[in-house]
Amino acid sequence: MKWYSRKGWVKAVSGTMMATVLAGTAILAGCSSSSSEAGATTADGKSVLKVEVFDRGNSPAGSTISNNYLTKLVNERFGGKNNIEVQYVPVPRSEELQKLNVLMASGGDVPDIVFTYDQGTFNRYAEQGGLTDLTDLLNQYGPNLKTFLGDDTLSYGQIEGKQYAIPGKRSVLGKYASYIRQDWLDALKLPVPQTTDELYTTLKAFKDQDPGKVGTSLIPFGMTIAPAQYEPLLWSFIQQPLTDEQKYTLTQKLGSSDYPTLLPGFKDGLKYMNKLYNEGLISKDFGLDEDKKQLWQDVQNGKVGFYTEDAGELYFSYNGTYKNLQTNVKDAALTPTDVFTNNEGKHAKPEYASNGLYIMIPKSSSKAVEAIKYLDWMASDKNLFDMQNGVEGENYTLKDGIPVAKEDASEEALNRLYNYGDMAIIANGKIVGTEEQNNDAYIMQVPEEYQADMRKSVDISNTDTIAPVNFNKPIEAEAKYGSALQDKYAQLIVKATMAPEAQFDTTYDSLVKDYMSSGGQAILDERTKVFQEGGATK
Questions:
Q1: This prediction's pTM
Q2: pLDDT tens, 392-404?
Q3: CA atoms of 103 and 28, how far apart (whole Å)
Q4: Are strands 166-170 and 427-428 parallel, antiparallel or unpaired?
Q5: How far, CA to CA in Å, does 495 sit from each of 219, 234, 275, 281, 362?
Q6: Residue 289: what are its φ and ψ, rounded to 5°?
């Protein structure tokens, strides 16, 4: 069987380049000296500020990733007033970690502003002395930025009280919602399930009675090896309440997400998945579906009765899942629901941390002041708003102060914002004001016909959420073993779920033993030590 793997990380950890990263400080050796271009200026005397930008290969005709509507807006509004020319350095999104490692190792060629979503990468650069301490610079040159981000978000870029990264701020913290075929429920005269037990009864009814007349290809519970499909289920089995010691020591952070591998109840969650699998209630080949494409296809073709997903994902035009289902299957309807219940009767599910990107200024840069000024400019006045939304009347209209994208926007207007998420780096998602306003802005991004269900999805994703835990110093073992353990974790889920019921316990124990010997125990030991030394961030 082909196991789930994160392709970007697999590439990143292969070859001599990543081996050097994992070996220690050698990869950042070039970052301690001044760049040969540190004092670079243009022919007309402007200071040059180099900023990384993700290249997704989607630039419209007439634009490039380094020369487009938004790069011009930045240079007119920020560059012109500060005698700075902002130059953008493209990095392929699919290869961002390995390319970033190469840039950081180069010293003189690294941009003045770089970023990553991966916490382990940020921690490693900071620990190895490759990043500028931004504490005083932020206080002096970033008042708008500090206000915009707030203390909680800023804390994710701090190591032992010093600011080594500017975290991007997430606009929406809710992650997941569930969806069920309302037309199938109606056909069987069943209510929308409200608990895990009621869901099981409903799934059995779907399988046994086939209300959609799907036949042998019917899938009561759509499953993949992507987190959105199994995390709501597994986290609902974690026994509550947890002590602070349990939360901080038994959680394993791999990449940028918390994993419940050692928390009480995790095994019970996998045993429940095993039961569903052996009764034919979840996707048979879910271990092969690492990018969710098979699941989306099955949902759109009317084969799936229930599944969990990133909140509202199916309503977005770019995804098309719900629209295509309605086109393919007459009278098909999906209802947002919140079914998984824990031992306290709550619908527990993880939420995002308040940070998105880790925005960093390499130690080799002499443009740290300009870099903070640039990020502070983005957080001031209407600059972020305009970068995210474009021109009023052409890209959006205002509804109760919330920008609503125009469905009849011209191609020229749409092309202005094709990469706004990669340019407006201090924000992850559209931020227009309060948490409620941000949720409204998120909801209004989908077609109006879906906005009522979208709102239900967002409300579900924000209900009974479990916040991530954070330490005020890096857990080195997580950076060292995290990539390999993510693959081990995926194998644990797939193999334990697919094992014959009688072999579940021995299979589970063997897989956990392998996981722990591959770095899980080292992470547990280090997290326990740091917690006991008072390193937990409340």
A1: 0.84
A2: 999 999 999 999 9
A3: 9
A4: parallel
A5: 20, 15, 13, 16, 42
A6: -95, 85
